Amino acid sequence: METYSEMLKLDVWTSTEVTKVVRDIAENKWEVTFIRGGSTQTLKGEHVVFAVGLSANVPSIPSIPGMVLSNLYLLLCFYLLN
What we know:
Order of helices and strands: HEEEH
Number of helices: 2
Number of strands: 3
Number of domains: 1
Shape: globular
Oligomer: single chain
Structural class: alpha+beta
């Protein structure tokens, strides 16, 4: 994960607990509330990525109102399951 995030210049936070994800329709953004370092914080952004790994090659997809699964993601899930 370190190499991938460095190549794409992504900020990756580990040991962070997401407590709430809400779609703000008026601003067309996601509002994410999380606990990091013992402090509760909220950020807004256009995209939310949950990188929780694979457990026994069966992806766990949470049901989040407003979430759209891309065809690429579904293809990846199909490939991993077969």
